[in-house]
# Entry
Amino acid sequence: MGNVAIKAKALIKWFGEGETKTTAVKGASFEANFGELLYIVGPSGSGKTTLLSMISGILKPNEGSVLVEGKDIWQMKSDDIADLRLHKIGFVFQDYHLFPRLTTVENVAIPLILKKMDWDKALNVALEYLEIVGLKDRAKLQPVKLSGGEQQRVAIARAIAGKPDILIFDEPTASLDGDTGRKIVEFIKTKILNPDRCVIIVTHDSRIYEYADSIMKMEDGNIIGFEPQHIIVTHEK
Amino acid sequence: MSGILKIALKLLVNDRSKFIALLVGITFAVFLMIMMMSMFSGILSRSSASVYNVGAKIWVMDPAVNNATSSIPMPDYVLSNARSIEGVKYAVPIYFGNALVKLKSGAYQAVSVVGLDDATLYGRPELIEGKIEDIYAESAFFVVKDAEFKKLENPVIGTEFEINDHRGVVVGLAKVASGGLFGIPTVYTTYNRAITYIPSMRFTTSYILIEPKSEADIPFIQQQIKKLGYQALTRDQFVQKISDFYTYQTGMGMNVLMMTAISFIVGLSISGQTFYTFILENMERFGALKAIGAKGHELITMILFQASFTALLGYGLGVGLASGLMILAKLRLPSYAAQVTYTNLTFAFVMVLIMAGVSSYIGVRKVLQIQPFDIFRG
# Structure
């Protein structure tokens, strides 16, 4: 496995046509490496989520390319992109998007089931991941019975259960209090991140900036800077 | 069951209120459809009871006859001609008519009278009490012991009654395959006694029953009868003719069709609407599944499975409920005319599949439209 997990080249994305045309990302190029915790930060409407969606195979860019482990994902067929998401990328959504009608352990087992793992085996494996996030005793509960922080951890367990190389978090601390938010990011940094995994967090919560290896700043669809300097960031229009 | 279907099932079943609403909608629709069609089938079956009970292979009648009980008497030469047709093993007359019976209590009761050919008793019912030869005794009648039997005050062998001011004596109790449609008791006697007791026109033969030498002779016999200006129908053709009459010429068929269509529309509306709401409420979950890596065809499979599962369960419950109600009704009303047939079940099944198909189609369209990006955007 090479060191570069994701390489984005001159990504441009606009919505609408004519007078209603809005360009959300105006030419973003960067690389994210394995073993790195990369933050994409910026105010609301700066294009963070759009950029995140393009690099994770969810939203097709109008221009530019995204290489995941060396493969240009937007040259793939839609089913292959879905496969890539299933096998290589894990998501933790801002609102978690847990399934309220399933138990916690069944929620965590979803990526495994999508990978055609036997139901009982998937539940056993999911239980191991719940143990990692410290919620094994909540396995049989439905997500609505859990606190916000616990739901966040279930979402993390679900994201890592598929053993993805790339983990993407969308505003993971947005609905958590400061202390719980910090604990979650600490947990990501110490337990989830490893040399074979790249973690990308989209956030505008400055309280958690201290945990980042690299921070990429966005504003009005442009990458306007990065910290520290070792991350390769270019701005092409 | 594969994991993805198990997830689909849990998403569906664990949403209790929606699941119950879906089930109730489909069950209710199936119940109504089965009930309507079964009642109609029962009526059609009863309307052909005489044809089934007599059991002749070929029935000769006036072409204007459209149901078994409204026969148009034919002249004797038709019988003579029928007997002389090549391929006819034998041909006998049969009489169908109605009479008023005065019971011992003094009450009057209408009865259906079947007059069997004196020589052969062709078309006779199966006796459960009495001897067949007793039909030749003076004023002898067999009474059919069916749901209407009690209207004759439960007669026994030897019970006397008046029939059109003539003396009648019960010499046997019989059973038949199917009860009549009009809720009146049936008595059997000989042809000659029947036409003596019951006022009639110049011609007296209601039908001529023909036994062909072989099945292959039937078309020729039908052709020859047609030349006489009459119609020879096989048992199935006659039943179909009666069925067509009730279906298309009495308005009954249209009523049943309309009720069935309304039931279908009600079921479709309830299930379609509820399933659509269910899909809308689970849109984010389907979007999340897509984002995680579920493919379009997997989501379609999930939705089809959810719709089919509900539809089949609703179908089973609907059929069960309708059958249960019919059994209960028959316990209380033995002459209750309703029967579940394979045709009814198949028709209702197809309707339910259409409901599931339409509901799924709406759901599939919606789910395929959702983009995982929408999930990211919240």
